[in-house]
Amino acid sequence: MHSNFVDYIKLNCKSGNGGAGSAHLHREKFIEKGGPDGGDGGRGGHIILKGNAQLWTLLPLRYTRHLKADNGKNGGTSRATGADGNDVVIEVPIGTIAKDENGDFMGEITEDGQQVILMEGGKGGLGNWHFRSPTRQTPRYAQPGLPGLEGQVILELKILADVGLVGFPNAGKSTLLSVVSAAKPKIADYAFTTLTPNLGIVPYRNHQSFVMADIPGIIEGAAEGKGLGHRFLRHIERNSLLLFLIPADSKDHVKEYEILVNELREYNPELLDKERILAISKSDMLDDELKEEISELLPKDIPHLYISSVAQLGLMELKDLLWNKLND
């Protein structure tokens, strides 16, 4: 998609400090000089990045600015090692890159379930048990734990849109995008409003989200390079789902759909293998009877629904349908 569209977030992170070792000396009845039995401290918690194929954007992390892993516990008596601090695991979409505050690469997530330690927890200190020797039988010291790391982590995700909007200029694509996402496309009431693809992150239930792109208007003949065609058709190649938008006041809904499909076929027949959904926009102007008439004529092999961005009709149903298709 728009290669310079990046989902970007800064987090302040701190891994845990290591626990201190124990300098305990063993004391028992009838044993004059118990030896050293101090255990080691536990390591501090790591800050870990983990791939999650169910995530599409970094949106869920917008609400988490500070992440701090637990410190390791101190060593105990009888050579008991302190517990390690709990790690903090940050779940991110596949394709997320982590950098430090200087922009230096820290790691990249390329597959589901993959884990990258961004900041290691501090090592626990050794207990006095480790420092005994023939000449020094009761060492009374142990190591402190090492401190954790602290700093900013910058997460970046180059976004490929999950849903591409296909429609003639003025089908209401920019308006739909501005209503369902935080994108602020320039909207004007004339053909070719959109000269570059607008991308928006669409928030969904339970902090989930997906990406929708408005691919600039295709006009008849775009595949032969007329109008703005080619530059934009290229963008569609990378969407996983195509949402056709045809306005309610179109003279011929079916013909308009067929022209759009034909443009895609001429340009690259593989585009037709993608899942398609058809939405009739501006449908607040239709009554039930008109909707039924239109539905009768629409192609039976793809799901269709009626929406109005302005009147906010059918938008949740549309999001549900898109989400379910993306996650099939």
UniProtKB/TrEMBL annotation:
Record-linked NCBIfam families: Obg_CgtA, PRK12297.1, PRK12299.1
Annotated Gene3D superfamilies: GTP1/OBG domain, P-loop containing nucleotide triphosphate hydrolases
GO molecular function, one term: GTP binding
Classification via InterPro entries: G_OBG, GTP-bd, GTP-bd_Obg/CgtA, GTP1-OBG_CS, GTP1_OBG_dom, GTP1_OBG_dom_sf, OBG_GTPase, P-loop_NTPase
HAMAP family attached to this UniProt entry: GTPase_Obg
Sequence positions that bind GTP: 167-174, 192-196, 214-217, 281-284, 308-310
Name of the protein this chain belongs to: GTPase Obg
Subcellular location: Cytoplasm
Residue ranges that the Swiss-Prot or TrEMBL entry lists as coiled coil: none
Top-tier EC class: hydrolase
GO cellular component terms, semicolon-separated: cytoplasm
GO biological process, one term: ribosome biogenesis
Keywords tagged on the record: Cytoplasm, GTP-binding, Hydrolase, Magnesium, Metal-binding, Nucleotide-binding
CDD domains: Obg
Gene: obg
UniProt cofactor(s): Mg(2+)
